[in-house]
Automatic annotation (TrEMBL):
GO MF assignments: DNA binding
Name of a matching Pfam family: HTH_IclR
InterPro entries: ArsR-like_HTH, Tscrpt_reg_IclR_N, WH-like_DNA-bd_sf, WH_DNA-bd_sf
Upper taxonomic lineage: Archaea, Methanobacteriati, Methanobacteriota, Stenosarchaea group, Halobacteria
Protein name: HTH iclR-type domain-containing protein
Species assigned in the record: Natrialba taiwanensis DSM 12281
Length: 113
C-alpha cells in the first residue's frame, strides 16, 4: 500500500519541523519565537503560542537562554520578555533549517505532480 508523503501544504510551517524533529517543548518554543522574530514575548505568550503549559515553558527557558538562542529583552511589570537571538549562530541555523525543510518538502511535492 502506498503512503502519501507529507508536504508543506499538509501542515502549517512550524508543523513541518515538528513532524521532522518531534514535538519537544524546546522545539515548539523556538518555533513560536520565530513566528515574529522582531517581537518579544512573556512566558504566558510563549506557552500559548507553543501550545504548552506555562510550567513547561518555565522549566525549559533557562536551557534556551544558556544556549544563547533566545535572550531576555526587558522586564514588563514583573515578567521578563524573551526574543529569539538573531545574532546567535545556532538560532540562525534553526531558522534556516525550518525554512529549508519547508522549501525542500514543497519542492519534492512539486516534483511529484
Amino acid at each position: 500500500m502506498a503512503t502519501k508523503s507529507k508536504t508543506m501544504d499538509d501542515e502549517p510551517e512550524g508543523q513541518v519541523v515538528l513532524g521532522l524533529l518531534g514535538d519537544h517543548p524546546k522545539t515548539k518554543m523556538l518555533l513560536a519565537l520565530l513566528t515574529n522574530p522582531d517581537r518579544d514575548y512573556n512566558l504566558s505568550d510563549i506557552a500559548r503560542m507553543a501550545d504548552a503549559d506555562r510550567s513547561t515553558i518555565h522549566r525549559h527557558i533557562d536551557d534556551l537562554l544558556e544556549y544563547g538562542v533566545i535572550k531576555k529583552t526587558r522586564k514588563a511589570g514583573n515578567a521578563w520578555m524573551y526574543q529569539i537571538d538573531k545574532d546567535n549562530g545556532a538560532a540562525e541555523a534553526f531558522a534556516n533549517f525550518e525554512w529549508e525543510a519547508i522549501k525542500a518538502l514543497g519542492e519534492s511535492r512539486d516534483g511529484d505532480e
